[in-house]
UniProtKB/TrEMBL annotation:
GO terms under biological process: cytochrome c biosynthetic process; cytochrome complex assembly
Organism of provenance: Selenomonas ruminantium
Gene Ontology molecular function: heme transmembrane transporter activity
Protein name, UniProt field: Heme exporter protein B
PANTHER family listed in its UniProt record: CYTOCHROME C BIOGENESIS B-RELATED, HEME EXPORTER PROTEIN B
UniProt superkingdom: Bacteria
Record bears the keyword DNA-binding: no
């Protein structure tokens, strides 16, 4: 009996999680980058307090570049190990895409949960709108996961994966990245929270996910 789409997605997610826990290359790269950056911020501040807008921009810069250290490996590791062809033969395009996207979202969410409290503690920030702050983080991470999964598949086989991945990623994620910075700054006390930005981020995340779903079929079954 052929498994349903959800069952197939769950199988891909479990496979990604199992492999990730076994080898931990992506996890180690992202968390080491995050720790190094947070240590540099701590040393530079020396107990000082950042202005909310600057703090928000710095937080998202750390999240973005930390995610770049591991998100591009979602297809590259299989290409290196020689298992990508087997996945093409036995895995449908949509289950592979959504399973890997779900795993990437989980990976980036754990990274964000690790970074954010430490960052807020280091800068001594006071939260003015916790709900908007959490929603901005979730929508921002969702956008990074959707765009990152598709681009990781697109640059698989390229000679300079990491550089090409970062160059392509930034312009695609800017419509999520900039509202996330404004929402985070407002949540830290830099004025009223622009609630409309949350709807815009959710809409763009949906466009990214649907666009990735449509384009991935052509990419996956390309000769």
């Amino acid at each position: 009996m052929k498994p349903s789409l959800w069952q197939a997605v769950k199988l891909v997610f479990v496979k990604e999680f199992t492999v990730g826990m076994r080898f931990k290359a992506a996890w180690a790269a992202m968390f080491m980058f995050a720790l190094t950056t947070l240590a540099c911020v701590s040393l530079a501040l020396q107990g000082g307090v950042l202005e909310p807008r600057l703090a928000a921009a710095l937080l998202w810069i750390i999240i973005f570049f930390a995610s770049m250290a591991g998100a591009d490996r979602v297809f590259a590791d299989e290409d290196t190990a020689g298992t990508l062809l087997a996945l093409r033969l036995y895995g449908g395009a949509q289950p592979v895409l959504w399973g890997k996207m779900l795993y990437t979202f989980f990976l980036l969410l754990v990274l964000t949960i690790f970074i954010t409290p430490l960052f807020l503690l280091l800068i001594g920030a006071e939260m003015a709108a916790a709900g908007a702050f959490v929603l901005a983080l979730l929508l921002g991470v969702a956008g990074l996961a959707a765009a990152g999964t598709l681009l990781a598949a697109l640059v698989t086989g390229a000679q300079v994966k990491s550089g090409l991945f970062s160059v392509l990623m930034l312009p695609i994620i800017l419509p999520v990245f900039l509202p996330a910075i404004f929402l985070t700054a407002a949540s830290l006390g830099a004025g009223e929270v622009p609630v409309g930005f949350l709807g815009g981020m959710a809409l763009y995340d949906g466009i990214l996910a649907v666009g990735a779903s449509v384009l991935f079929d052509y990419l996956w079954y390309e000769d």
